[in-house]
């Protein structure tokens, strides 16, 4: 019960710490998601329905990726730079509760952008969403599966600039070299094999399986893979913060 109480209090504290920026960050996330969805129509006029579904769900997946490997590491890096991370680690709180609270904070910030990307994309391209209740598990599992490496880099990195460079490189990979926006079949053979061992592949498949009727999706397999990545990711993040603490 102590863990849950610490987790709840740390989530509330995170909101209070960033309340002056929360609205602006939310607007930026929404603008990014909607802009990505609109951009597809400019690049590919008269998009077929199946292609539109693939691209829109890819944009929604990009919101989850941004949370896990950009938003969360930057929150941790800023806390470290301002000394708040070291302060928290002097308190008698669970490191895992602290990490989970930060994951929850950035996830809650990005949910409106994720939902709007899906709804706006479906409306803009004229298709219907086929929602599966399992999406309420897919989204947090997706964030957890991505978060650990970003947190580890933010904690270990000696400079905020290095953390930012890593997160931008990760986003570049997901946009152009992972089967998130691009179909796996269009990637070089080497990148297809690499994708099998990285969580964005399974996050994208999970989102498509729970929001559309696109073929060749495997929700349970993807959820199992995300759960495995999530355990490893969270263990990596916890080891990084314990090493610093």
What does this protein look like?
The chain has 245 residues and is mainly α. It has one domain (2-244). It is built from 10 helices and no strands. It has helices at residues 2-17, 19-43, 49-81, 84-89, 95-125, 135-156, 160-177, 189-195, 199-211, 219-244. Helix 1 (2-17) crosses helix 5 and helix 6 packs antiparallel against helix 9.
Sum this structure up briefly:
By secondary structure, the chain is mainly α.
Provide key terms for this protein.
245 residues, globular, mainly alpha, 0% strand
Q: Which regions have little confidence, pLDDT < 50, spanning 5+ residues?
A: none
How many strand elements? 0
Number of helices: 10
Provide the structure class. Answer: mainly alpha
**Residue share in helices?**
over 70%
Q: What fraction of the residues are assigned to beta strands by DSSP?
A: under 5%
On the 0 to 100 scale, the average pLDDT is 85
How many individual domains? 1
> How would a textbook summarize the main sheet?
none
Based on Cα principal axes, name the global outline. globular
N to C succession of SSEs = HHHHHHHHHH
Distance between the termini: 23 Å
Gyration radius, in Å = 18 Å
């Amino acid at each position: 019960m102590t863990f849950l109480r610490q987790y709840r209090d740390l989530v509330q504290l995170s909101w209070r710490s960033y309340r002056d920026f929360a609205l602006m960050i939310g607007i930026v996330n929404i603008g990014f998601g909607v802009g990505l969805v609109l951009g597809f129509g400019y690049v590919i006029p008269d998009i077929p329905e199946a292609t539109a579904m693939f691209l829109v769900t890819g944009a929604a997946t990009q919101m989850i990726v941004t949370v896990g490997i950009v938003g969360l590491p930057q929150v941790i890096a800023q806390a470290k730079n301002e000394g708040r991370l070291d302060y928290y680690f002097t308190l008698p709180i669970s490191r895992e509760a602290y990490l989970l609270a930060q994951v929850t904070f950035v996830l809650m910030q990005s949910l409106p952008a994720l939902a709007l990307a899906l709804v706006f994309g479906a409306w803009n391209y004229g298709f219907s969403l086929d929602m599966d209740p399992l999406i309420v598990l897919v989204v947090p599992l997706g964030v957890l599966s991505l978060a650990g490496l970003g947190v580890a880099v933010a904690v270990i990195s000696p400079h905020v600039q290095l953390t930012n460079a890593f997160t931008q490189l990760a986003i570049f990979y997901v946009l152009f070299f992972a089967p998130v926006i691009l179909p796996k079949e269009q990637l070089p053979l080497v990148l297809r094999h690499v994708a099998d061992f990285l969580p964005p592949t399974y996050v994208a498949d999970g989102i498509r399986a729970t929001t559309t009727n696109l073929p060749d999706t495997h929700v349970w397999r993807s959820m199992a893979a995300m759960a495995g990545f999530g355990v490893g990711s969270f263990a990596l993040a916890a080891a990084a913060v314990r090493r610093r603490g």
